[in-house]
Task: structure prediction
Amino acid sequence: MDVPVALQVNQGGTWLLTIWRSVINTCVLVAWSLFSSASLSGELLELSVAEADGEYKLRMVSVLDAPADYVYRVITDYTHAYRINPSLTEVKILPSNHDGVIRVQNRSEHRVGLFSFEIEWVGDVVETPHSRISITTIPEIGSFHSGAALWEIRPQGNRTWVRHESSLKPKFYIIPVIGAYIMKNKMKDETLATFTRIECNAQIMSAMDMEQDSEHLKVVLNEKENCIQP
Result:
């Protein structure tokens, strides 16, 4: 859930590197600004990013080392989305006026050198329990002309097969070639980090529900110190 890196130039010729990061999110799944140093302990099956006409499309498929019920709970816990996107400063659930639709608003804050800026995203989420989560960006509000995302979750014993696809068309100007190159690589790194945090938090939730030994539970949680814990 979402994540561009835009290299901008003003009329005076001053270069400004502006990094956009935001999930799923959700995102929920739209802005995912996480740490590229994170590593996925599960099995990465596919990861690709493509750009055409200013729209960036991402696809990732992985098998996570966590039960599907908990993976689903982490992804759909929108009010605690900071667990997989620590740059978020505000999350609101807005009225959607449609049955079965959850409208989510995210704000995130980012710093690059001396510069500080905000990213805003609003999207409609439709959930099918333990199966699919579909997200549509609302272009009238926020930092994107358009966007969409899909999560598909399938149990594989105590592991979980997860497919995520997303598209975003930012409102910011992105310099051709070099800007697109930076952005695509950043999206890959941050999506890997998002999956890692989903897996990590799902493992913590599972351990908390199953572990009766409080001392052993502390050990389990300490082993997940690189994960934003519930």
Remarks:
- Residues 1-38 have pLDDT under 50 and may be disordered.
- Residues 5-222 form a domain with the Alpha-D-Glucose-1,6-Bisphosphate; Chain A, domain 4 fold (CATH 3.30.530.20).
